[in-house]
Amino acid sequence: MSQISPMPQMAQTGQPSWSTASFGDTADTSPAELAELGSHYSDCQGKRGSLFTLRCLAERANGFIASRFVTTLAVATLIIGGCALVR
């Protein structure tokens, strides 16, 4: 009877088979996994276009404002009220 490998390196589709279990062996990455990770990293680096910095700033501003929603509303109300009184 042949022994079945608990973690095949390649699935039937030819793509790396991902598993978080080491089955008692030393946890190590296969060359196919490292190649796939390198490919993914290259794809991610290529998608950093000209608007990437603007998007990052917008996400940071959104996080800052969302976590201080009530304070932001109070400050906006004061600014709008102050502008209305000045006129």
Secondary-structure topology with pairs:
Layout: H1 31-46, H2 52-67, H3 69-86
- Mean of all residue-level pLDDT scores: 78
Q: Structural class per helix/strand content?
A: mainly alpha
Number of strands: 0
Topology order in helix (H) and strand (E) letters: HHH
Query: What's the helical proportion of residues?
Result: 55-70%
Describe the global form: elongated
Distinct helical segment count? 3
Q: What's the end-to-end separation, in Å?
A: 90 Å
Low-confidence stretches: 1-8
Radius of gyration: 26 Å
Report the sheet with the most strands, covering strand number, pairing sense and barrel closure: none
SS strand fraction: under 5%
Describe, in plain words, how this protein is organized in 3D:
- The protein is mainly α.
- It has a domain at 50-87.
- The chain is built from three helices and no strands.
- It has helices at residues 31-46, 52-67, 69-86.
- The protein is elongated, with a radius of gyration of 26 Å.
Observed structural traits:
single chain, 87 residues, mainly alpha, disordered N terminus
